[in-house]
Amino acid sequence: MKRSIYNGLLRKEHAGQKVTLAGWVATRRNLGSLLFFDLRDSTGIVQVFTDHPDDFPDIRSEYVVKVVGTVRLKDKPNPALATGEVEIVLEEMEVLNKAKNPPFIIADKTDALEDTRLALRYLDLRRPCMLNKLKARAKVCKIFREYFDENGFLEIETPILNLSSPEGAKEYLVPSRLRHGAFYALPQSPQLWKQLLMCAGTERYYQVARCFRDEDLRADRQPEFTQLDLEMSFLDQEEILTLMEGFLKRIFKEVAGVDIVTPLPRMKFWDAMDNYGSDKPDTRFGLLLRDLSSYMEGVEFNGFEGNPFIKGIVIEGEAPSFSRKVLDEVTMEMRKFGLKGVLSIKVEKDGLGGSFAKFLDEEHASRLVNGLSLKEGDLLLFAASDSRRHIDTALGALRLFFANRLGLIKPNTYDLLWVVDFPMFDKVEGEDRYTAEHHPFTRPKDEDLPYLDSDPERVLAYAYDIVINGYEAGGGTLRIYDHDIQWKIFRLLGLSEEQVAEKFGWFIDAFSYGAPPHGGLAFGLERLCMILTGTENIRDVIAFPKNLNAADPLSKAPRVVDPKQLEDLAIMVKEEEEK
Asked: What is the CATH number of the domain that holds 332?
C-alpha cells in the first residue's frame, strides 16, 4: 500500500506535499465539471477534489480506495473538521474493493434504528462518533494500566472457568465434556480470586476482567461486561479512595478534557437515601426529599395509619401546570415502587389547594408553609409508607422524573462523589435472617462490631461506591480477614457450616494461613466510558453488544447447536411446552 499518512492527520503545513492515502469513500458530490468526495479512515476524513471527473467514474459511497494527490489549502476552510483547511487534488485512484449501497447513512447522524445498526455493527462502527467511543474506551484501559503500574500494582489474570456459586445473580454455566454432569461457571466477578491473591502476598493486583451475569437486561446493563478490577493489602478505606481519585482525575483530564477537584465529597448511605432517594444520587440538581412526619402529626388521614414515614419533594413554580395527565404519570411511576400513588398540595394565591389540602387545618397548613418555605406557585408532592427504603426509592425516582421533565440537569457537567457507610445487612422480609448488602466477605465497621450480636441492622460496613452523575461507576469494600468475624457473618446470613464448606471451603481455608488486611473495588468499564463519552446507551461503548433480549443481532447468538455437541456433553434439551 505504501500509505504515506493517515487522512485525519493532514494539516495546512502539509500543503504542497504529494501524499498517498487510503480509506472509504464517505460522501460523493459530482458537480459535472468537478468531483468532490470525503475519504474516511480510522483517524478522520479529508476532502478529495478533481476537475477531471470523467477520469474517475467508478466510485461510490463506501468503496475502499487508494488515492494519490497533492495537498493544497482550501479557499474556504471548514472549521468543523480537523482537516478542514486542506484538500487533496486527485491525481491517481485505485478501487481496492467495491461496496453494496449500505442500508443506512454512515455518518454521525444516521437514520437507522438501533436493531439495524446492531445487525450490521461493522457498518455502524465506521461512523466517526462510534469509532471515537471505542478509542475513548481503549484510552481508559491504557491509562488504567499505566496509573496502577506506576503505583506498584501487578496485572494478574484470574480464571474464566470457575466453580459455580449461585448466591448472587444467575450464572452462565459451561458443561464439562470430560466429566459429564459437572459444570463450570463463568465469573460474575474475580472477587474470590483477587482476595486469594492478597493471601498469596501479591499485595497489589489489577486486571481488565471480563465478567458474566445471566440476568434481565436494562439500558445500562449487559450480560457480559468488563471490570477494571483492583485489590490491595495494608491500606485503609481513606487510602484506597485517595488512590482511586488519582486515577479518576487522570482519565477525566485525558479522555474528557475535564479537571475534577479532589478530594471528592463523601456522602453517607443514609444521607443519600434520605435526601436524594438513591444510593447513587445525582447531585447536579436540587429537589431534595423532605421529611414531613413532624408537620403531619395530628392530621387525620387514613393513609397515614401504619405508615410512619411521610416524605415529599417541593417543585418550585409547578403548581399551575400540574394537570390530571401529569398526576396520572406520577402515579404510574410511584406504583413501580409499591406505592399506591402520590398526594399533592398546591400553593395558591388564596391558600393551599390540591388533593390533600382539605385534610389540613389552619395551624397545620401554616406550619407546613413556613417550615418548608413554600411560596405561591409551588407544588408539594408526598407519600406515606411503612418502609423507609421504599418511600425514599420511590421519591428518588420521582425526583429524576421532574428533573428530566423540567430540564434541571445541565449538560456537559460532571458531579462525582463517594457514597460510604453502607448497611452491612438487609433483613429478609418475613424471615429471621439477613442478606449481605454487598457480599458475605464485606468487613463491618470496627465501632459497630458489638451490634452484630444485639442489633445487626444497625451495623455499617466499610463499603464505598463511586457515583458519577447519578450512575454507580464502581464500588468496593474492605474485606473480612478475621476468622471469628467471618463465621459470625455466615451465621447471620443463615449459612450452615456444611453450606459454607460446600460453597466457600476452598476459599476460607486460605485465610487460616495468615490473611492480610485488604480491600479493593472495581470500576465498571462500560459505564465509566458511557459517562466519559456523553452517551446514555451502554451499547455505544461496546464493539459488539447484545440487545435487551441478551441476543447478538449480528451473529444471531444464542442459537440451537448441533445435536452431536449435546451428545458429547451428555446433555438432553427439554422441548419448551406450547403455551
From this structure: 3.30.1360.30
Based on the domain organization, do 248 and 290 belong to the same domain? no
On the 0-12 / 13-18 / 19+ scale of CB atoms within 10 A, 550 is: middle
Q: Which element (helix H / strand E) includes 192? A: helix 191-199
Domain at 153, CATH number: 3.30.930.10
| Residue 578: CB atoms within 10 Å | 4
Q: Is 107 left (phi over 0), alpha (psi -120 to 50) or beta?
A: beta
Judge whether residue 335 has pLDDT over 80. yes
Identify whether 299 is part of a domain. yes
Q: Tell whether 316 and 241 lie within a shared domain.
A: no
Domain that holds residue 29: 7-97
How many Cα neighbours within 13 Å face the side chain of 278? 21
User: Can you name the residues that pair with 385 across neighbouring β-strands?
Assistant: 309
The reported pTM is 0.92
CA distance 148 to 228: 11
> Rounded to 5 degrees, what are φ and ψ at 524?
-80, 110
Counting other chains too, the contacts that 438-442 makes at CB distance below 8 Å and 24 or more residues apart are 438/463, 438/475, 438/477, 439/168, 439/191, 439/477, 440/167, 440/489, 440/490, 440/493, 440/495, 440/504, 441/191, 441/195, 441/477, 441/479, 441/480, 441/486, 442/477, 442/478, 442/479, 442/480
Could you tell me if residue 431 is inside a domain?
no
Please state the rounded mean pLDDT for residues 269-293.
96
Average pLDDT over residues 276-301: 95
449 in any annotated domain: no
The partner residues of 49 in beta bridges, in order of sequence, read 36, 89
Q: Return the C-alpha cell found at 579.
A: 403455551
Evaluate whether 320 touches 348 at the Cβ level (below 8 Å): no
Which DSSP helix (H) or strand (E) runs through 137? helix 128-150
Last residue of a domain, one of 43, 72, 97: 97
Alpha-carbon distance of 477 to 462, in angstroms, equals: 6
DSSP H helices in 415-511 = 451-454, 483-492, 497-508
- At residue 223 the predicted structure's pLDDT band, cuts being 50, 70 and 90, is very high
CA distance linking residue 383 with residue 337, whole number of Å:
12
Mean pLDDT, rounded, for 76-93: 96
Query: What is the Cα Rg of the chain in Å?
Result: 30
Q: Between 483-492 and 497-508, two packed helices, what is the crossing angle to 10 degrees?
A: 140
- Sign for the pseudo-dihedral over CA of 50, 52, 56, 62: positive
What is the number of domains present in the chain?
3
